[in-house]
Design goal:
By secondary structure, the protein is mostly helical. 74% of the residues lie in helices and 0% in strands.
Length: 276
């Protein structure tokens, strides 16, 4: 009898110790005993939400992970998986963005038809969007952001409530890429390599016809066509449509007054072919 009581007492002490260790891991030393009449997965999700509100990313992540790892049959498990990704995204930093992307990508692999798949795809794209660099610097993350935003628009663009927000960020990311390419063309223009400038400016217009700052492209493309052509009349004939597009689409552009003067000069010149 005494031996049975001893084993029972030892088992109880082990259970209490295990519970204490779990509480310390989740609550920073505070006991988080799950109430007897509470669903444990729901309890953990509620604690995770509270931690997220307080920006306690690591603590929230531990609660979410408890649900993912210990309750595979829980209907809350997909949301917990997204929650883990959100803690990484919210905490920020290159390593966390990589980890967050992995969580969202795994979610889409495990739950491709889940009602929150659009959310996962959007936040996957945000992991790249948050790492975009200035136009003059490496654009790898910007390209990845554009790619993932495009996946969202292709899959969920007509049904998701997130579409407008995604479109805004997609345009911002796409503009960043076009701006980077435009700056290369402008450099060519500055060093008077007009052939290279024309090629790059036309590439911007072809690949991104919705580029927000097209007036800049129209202006420098037209100028490059005129300055780079051995025949000024032929160069002007190619340039004038771009000047007109600038005035039509961007009447308030910083280049508008200059373009009007330029067109007046071109129209006043003799019709015969001239060479520079």
């Amino acid at each position: 009898m005494t031996d049975h009581l001893s084993r029972f007492s030892g088992g109880c002490r082990f259970a209490v110790l295990a519970l204490a260790l779990w509480a310390a891991a989740c609550g920073g030393g505070k006991k988080n005993v799950i109430p007897a009449n509470t669903q444990p997965d729901r309890y953990l999700m509620d604690r995770a939400s509270e931690a997220m509100m307080k920006k306690q990313w690591t603590r929230a992540r531990e609660y979410y992970r408890q649900v993912v790892d210990n309750y595979p049959g829980s209907p809350l498990r997909p949301d917990a998986k997204l929650g883990i990704g959100d803690t990484y995204l919210s905490e920020g930093g290159t390593e966390n963005y990589v980890l967050g992307e992995n969580e969202f990508r795994e979610f889409l692999t495990f739950y491709p038809t889940n009602a929150r798949a659009d959310y996962a795809q959007y936040h996957l794209a945000l992991c790249h969007y948050k790492q975009m660099r200035a136009p003059a610097r490496d654009q790898t993350e910007t390209k990845d952001a554009v790619k993932e935003f495009q996946v969202f628009l292709d899959r969920y663009g007509t049904t998701s409530s997130l579409t407008n927000e995604v479109r805004e960020k997609f345009r911002e990311a796409r503009d960043r890429l076009s701006q980077a390419s435009f700056l290369v063309g402008k450099h060519y223009y500055t060093v008077r390599w007009y052939v290279g400038a024309v090629s790059r400016f036309r590439e911007v217009l072809m690949e991104d016809p919705g580029y927000t700052h097209r007036d800049e492209v129209y202006y420098y493309l037209a100028e490059s066509l005129i300055k780079g052509s051995p025949n000024k009349k032929l160069g002007a004939d190619e340039a004038i449509p771009y000047y007109n597009r600038l005035l039509t689409e961007f009447p308030m552009s910083d280049h508008a007054d200059e373009v009007r003067k330029r067109l007046a000069e071109l129209q006043a010149e003799p019709a015969q072919t001239k060479t520079q």
